[in-house]
Amino acid sequence: TSEQIEHLHRRFKQLSRDQLTIRKENFDSIPDLEFNPIRGKIVHAFFDKRNLRQESEGLADEINFEDFLTIMSYFRPIEMNMDEEQLDRFRKEKLKFLFHMYDSDHDGKITLQEYRNVVEELLSGNPHLEKESARSIADGAMMEAASICVGQMGPDQVYEGITFEDFLKMWQGIDIETKMHVRFLNMEPIAHCY
User: Fold this and answer.
1) CA-CA 20 to 30 A from 70: which of 7, 121, 126, 137?
2) Distance in angstroms (rounded) separating the CA atoms of residues 182 and 194
3) How is the chain split into domains, by residue range?
4) pLDDT digits (tens, 9 = 90+) for 6-26
5) Strand 62-64 relative to strand 21-23: parallel, antiparallel, unpaired?
6) For residues 143 and 145, what is the distance between their CA atoms, to the nearest angstrom?
């Protein structure tokens, strides 16, 4: 709505300090984002050209308000009047955004190493969990992904990584529409991001 766009514009101006673009360092002013273990991946996703729908690889150095709206559109809630086709497209857009957060080398696959990196980042705040345990969790999850996506593998088969089609299979039945949201858009001095 025009009211939502106006609210986003005020937040954009606050983040950019009244400049025409936002740079990565502007996200440093979001207190709760500072404590998020995957902060770097979240900020990276805002500048990932794939998420900006520019159909290219790499990162933008800065984003303007239109780019900001594009990114924020991934987080909007579902609308009650959406038909099944619109809901499916909406869901795929959200999952593509998440997929890009994991696929850090932009090759169209989430490799075991990329997945390990994310799991290690997510669990980094737990002082009772050693790095080797985090790797074991990532390895187990990758094996589960392979069994869901490929089925029974032979002893000489190697699972190259999770493609976007695999990613869609893995998220089937999980309500991503209500789980993927951003709360740092309020205008209060202390902002939130989950």
Assistant:
1) 121
2) 6
3) 2-178
4) 999 999 999 999 999 999 999
5) antiparallel
6) 5
